[in-house]
Amino acid sequence: DRTHDEAVPSTVRSSLSPSLLQDLLRFSKQGGDVDLLHAVAASVRHGKAMSLCLELADQPIVASISPRLQIYRAPRDLCALPPSQLAVLRLARVEPESASVPPGSTARIHVGPLRPLLWSLALFGPRDELLPEIAGSVRYRLAFGVSLAGLPIDAEWMPMLHRLRSMPLSLEDMLSGGSFRRVTPQRMLNAVYLQSGLMISRAFDARVW
């Protein structure tokens, strides 16, 4: 790929739209790869479709996500993958949106709703840290009027979601008095963010928190 600049990670094609490319590079170290959830979040923020070249147990899967249409296309139903497989789903490359199946191909393509896929990738995918764009000295709250209906929500998470709906909470607030490991609220915050359902209050002086 002669258009590929040395500053662009190997997982990213520099032929992506300039705004999307800059967003993907914003949180990556020079020469470092962009992870799957990071790429998906950038696509959702910009409302731009992209193709994801994935690997699952050394088997390639080419999927495309279309935030404006709220769908994804893939050779199989990615939402049906068990958590153990979602945890090892690896992003090999991000490309501009293209047909997942060459013209004239008889291969079947699954078309599914995007929201449940974003939810599953955040809760069970390989990333268990907060996305960098929502990390830091911040407090979180569920956006007013946001609906999580139709998403597979574990019953034990409901009290935390109810607290987020009623008051702004820091990550430490969410961990206090509960039995959750730190990764649980981090994954849930990522999931809510990808549903465009998270309000963030950022502190410029950490002492106010």
The largest pleated sheet is described as: 5 strands, antiparallel
Helical proportion, percent range: 25-40%
Mean pLDDT: 84
- Please tell me how large the radius of gyration is: 18 Å
Sheet-strand content, in percent, reads: 15-25%
Low-confidence stretches are: 1-6
Q: What is the chains' assembly state? A: single chain
What is the H/E string? Answer: HHEEEHEEHEHHHE
Record the SSE blueprint.
Layout: H1 18-26, H2 36-46, E1 50-56, E2 59-66, E3 71-74, H3 83-86, E4 90-96, E5 110-113, H4 114-124, E6 138-142, H5 158-166, H6 171-175, H7 183-194, E7 198-202
Antiparallel strand pairs: 1-2, 1-4, 2-3, 3-5, 6-7
Describe this structure in words.
There is one protein chain. The protein is globular. α1 (18-26) crosses α2 and α4 packs antiparallel against α7. The protein has 7 helices and 7 strands, in the order ααβββαββαβαααβ. The protein is 29% helix and 19% strand. Strands 4-1-2-3-5 form a 5-stranded antiparallel β-sheet. Strands 6-7 form a two-stranded antiparallel sheet. The protein is of the alpha+beta class.
Task: Pick out its properties.
globular, disordered N terminus, 209 residues, five-stranded antiparallel beta sheet, 19% strand, alpha+beta, 29% helix, two-stranded antiparallel ribbon, 7 strands
